[in-house]
Amino acid sequence: MRQKDVFSVVPDPRATLVGDLTGPTVMAPGFFDCIVCTETVAMIYDIRLAIKRLSAMLAPGGVLLVTANGIVRTGRHLDRDAWGEYWHLTQQSARLLFEENFQGRFDVEGYGNVLSAIASLHGLACSELTQEELEHRDRDYDVTVAVRAERAGS
Asked: What b-and-e string marks burial along 28-47, b requiring 16 or more CB atoms within 10 Å of the CB?
C-alpha cells in the first residue's frame, strides 16, 4: 500500500480528502486504485451522480467496493441529523444503477435472510445468531447489498 486516504463530506481531522460526491466537479479524477465505500450511497440523494463520480475517481482497472443497506430501519432524518437517508437498495436496483452509471464491469451480491432481517430490525448483534443462520441467503431478504466494480481500462 502506497497511500491511504480518508474521504469525508464534512471537515474532519482524520480526513485527507474533503468534498461532496455530487459537488460541481469530480474529486481526484482517475487517482485511486481502490475505493471502499461502505454504507454511504444511501445517504446521498443524487445516488446516480455519486456512482458516476466514484467511477471517475478510479484509475483504469481500479476497483470500487460498495455496501448499502437493504432491509434496515431508517437511521437518518433531516429534521434531526446533518444529512438524510434516501435509499435502501435491492440487488436489482444496484445492478441497474451500476449499469447506467459505472464505466466498467461489476458484480452484485445480496446478504441476508428473513431471520437476519428480523434480528437486524430488532437491534440484535450478529453474535446472537449462529454462523449457519447468518450465512444462509434468501434473495427476498437482503439486509446488505454489496457491489464489486472494476473500472474499464488497463
From this structure: beebbeebebeebbbbbeeb
CATH number at residue 52: 3.40.50.150
Range 99-114 burial, b when 16+ CB lie within 10 A, else e: eebbebebebebbbbe
Question: Strands of 144-151's sheet, edge to edge?
Answer: 32-38, 58-69, 144-151, 104-111
The domain of 25 spans: 7-151
Mean pLDDT by 10 residues, the chain (154 residues): 84 90 90 95 94 96 96 78 84 97 96 96 94 95 97 84
Against a cut of 0.85, is the pTM above it?
A: yes
